[in-house]
């Protein structure tokens, strides 16, 4: 096989896409729109949020929510660049895209450990 | 050989509606990824302390950030719809010689999407 | 009452006299029951015998008459003039293929790709005729039947931007045909086909644009076949990683 590791990236892409599809919209509505708008002020109060997010289950959930769609982005963006006609440096693009996702996943772990 | 090869322009995706919507679908992964970085930042601010967190909320309330989040929400919804619509093609469910209608498979997924979204909202607001 | 006419703008390329291709305009009688192929045959018979094109059954089963009609890959025998009348109709050879002459494309690449996926039953052991026929239940037939309906018209290759950008891409029809055999209960040749399928230019180049399925006149759903092949290959890979001792 020319690319025997492709299934790994495709599986991560599929898992990340599923997480993005089912979980991301409601989270955008909550943290990106409701919270800054001052709706549900009690919900997003510091003490409450800190406690909610620090729970081990929450931390694992946040890792899945954030890291997997980053791999979804990496795979999709890599192929978007190819579809947009970027033919040369295919390998470099793959390394940069998946590398960014790995960095993002590691950063996520690092941040979640500080809670 | 005297065969004539027609070139494919890099603007091929502007040629028709289906190609254009495909490119939009692919590009939804970008605002989604950016949103998740902003979410990670929010978690980091939570770890840093009350002042940092509340300053971040004020930052998110600026017009630019609100506009971004509305764009990201539209992108996430478009991604969700296209993803769920494609699911029956990838996961073929058969009962004997009959195939479960794709619309039913997609419908079940949409229902699950609603349930999951409500569940998460409930956990965040009550949990 | 004068006979209504419709305008056809047809791609012309005659390598012995043309450096570049061009378009030629023809006025053809408009009949509500005519398809584009009827109009083209009228041109060939009465207006311009030099026009070259492929056709055969004129009823949507042979797959010969695929062309770009107003920029969309279609069978010219299945596309009615009344869909466009009174606007002019632009007819071009199928996209993403080299043009040999006028509306005739070079389809060698397609033929080579179809053959490369071994489109025949590969049994585990050869069976003697005296052993009797293969038996298959309706449910077993249903697993692959849709993918067996391909008429090799190549509209899917014309619709696929990945094939347009990367000519080495195996393409929708070839992968769907491979799936047709992989899912056939009489076949055990999947691992042989994987050598061609599970490669960068095989299933992994596909980005699920989905236009192949949209244009397919036989409702094969090649996009579905490709995604199913990706999932099956990915699950195989997981099994190979978790249980490397298992044989394929």
Descriptive report:
The complex is a heterotrimer of chains A (115), B (127) and C (248). By secondary structure, chain A is mainly alpha-helical. Chain A has one domain (6-113): 3 helical TM bundles of succinate and fumarate reductases (Up-down Bundle), CATH 1.20.1300. Chain A is built from 4 helices and no strands. Chain A has helices at 6-37, 46-54, 56-83, 90-113. In chain A, helix 1 crosses helix 3 (56-83). The N and C termini of chain A lie far apart (44 Å). Chain B has 127 residues and is mostly helical. Chain B folds into 2 domains: 1-78, Fumarate reductase/succinate dehydrogenase, transmembrane subunit (3 helical TM bundles of succinate and fumarate reductases, Up-down Bundle), CATH 1.20.1300; 91-127, no CATH class. Chain B has 5 helices and 2 strands, in the order ααααββα. A two-stranded antiparallel ribbon of chain B has the order 1-2. Chain B is flat and about 70 Å long. The N and C termini of chain B lie far apart (71 Å). The model of chain B has no long low-confidence stretch (mean pLDDT 94). Chain C folds into 2 domains: 5-105, Ubiquitin-like (UB roll); 108-242, Alpha-helical ferredoxin (Fumarate Reductase Iron-sulfur Protein, Chain B, domain 2), CATH 1.10.1060. Helices cover 33% and strands 13% of the residues of chain C. Chain C is built from 9 helices and 7 strands. In chain C, strands 2-1-5-3-4 form a 5-stranded mixed beta sheet. Chain C has a two-stranded antiparallel ribbon with strand order 6-7. Chain C is elongated. In chain C, 42% of the residues are buried. The mean pLDDT of chain C is 95. Chains in contact: A-B, A-C, B-C. The interface between A and B is large, with 50 and 49 residues.
């Amino acid at each position: 096989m020319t690319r025997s590791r492709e299934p790994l990236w495709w599986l991560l892409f599929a898992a990340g896409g599923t997480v993005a599809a089912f979980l991301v919209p409601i989270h955008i509505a909550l943290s990106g729109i409701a919270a800054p708008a001052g709706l549900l002020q009690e919900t997003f109060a510091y003490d409450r949020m800190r406690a909610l997010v620090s729970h081990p289950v929450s931390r694992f959930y946040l890792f899945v929510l954030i890291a997997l769609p980053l791999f979804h982005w990496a795979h999709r963006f890599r192929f978007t660049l190819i579809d947009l006609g970027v033919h040369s440096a295919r390998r470099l693009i793959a390394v940069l895209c998946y590398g960014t996702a790995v960095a993002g996943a590691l950063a996520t772990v690092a941040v979640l450990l500080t809670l | 050989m005297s065969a004539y090869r027609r070139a494919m322009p890099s603007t091929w995706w502007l040629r028709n509606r289906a190609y254009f919507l495909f490119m939009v679908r692919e590009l939804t992964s970008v605002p989604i990824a950016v949103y998740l970085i902003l979410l990670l930042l929010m978690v980091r601010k939570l770890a840093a302390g009350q002042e940092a967190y509340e300053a971040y909320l004020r930052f998110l309330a600026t017009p630019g950030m609100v506009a971004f989040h509305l764009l990201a929400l539209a992108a996430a919804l478009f991604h969700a719809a296209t993803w769920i619509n494609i699911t029956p093609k990838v996961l073929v469910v058969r009962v004997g010689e009959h195939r479960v209608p794709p619309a039913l498979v997609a419908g079940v997924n949409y229902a699950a999407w609603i349930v999951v979204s409500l569940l998460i909202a409930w956990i965040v607001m009550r949990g | 009452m004068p006979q209504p006419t419709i305008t056809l703008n047809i791609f012309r390329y005659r390598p012995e006299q043309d450096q570049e291709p061009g378009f030629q305009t023809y006025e053809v009688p408009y009949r509500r029951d005519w398809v584009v192929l009827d109009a083209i045959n009228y041109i060939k018979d009465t207006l311009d015998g030099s026009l070259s094109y492929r056709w055969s059954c004129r009823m949507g089963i042979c797959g010969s008459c695929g062309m770009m009609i107003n920029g969309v890959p279609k069978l010219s025998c299945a596309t009615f003039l009344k869909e466009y009348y009174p606007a002019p109709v632009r007819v071009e050879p199928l996209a993403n293929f080299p043009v040999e002459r006028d509306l005739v494309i070079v389809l060698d690449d397609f033929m080579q790709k179809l053959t490369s996926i071994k489109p025949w039953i590969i049994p585990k052991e050869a069976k003697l005729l005296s052993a009797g026929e293969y038996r298959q239940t309706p449910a077993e037939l249903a697993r692959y039947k849709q993918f067996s309906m391909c008429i090799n018209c190549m509209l899917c290759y014309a619709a696929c931007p990945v094939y347009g950008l990367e000519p080495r891409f195996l393409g929708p029809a070839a992968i769907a045909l491979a799936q047709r055999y992989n899912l056939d209960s009489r076949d055990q040749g999947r691992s042989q086909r994987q050598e061609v399928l599970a490669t960068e230019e095989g299933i992994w180049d596909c980005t699920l644009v989905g236009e192949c399925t949209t244009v397919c006149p036989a409702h094969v759903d090649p996009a579905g076949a490709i995604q199913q092949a990706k999932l099956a290959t990915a699950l195989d890979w997981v099994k190979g990683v978790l249980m490397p001792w298992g044989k394929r």
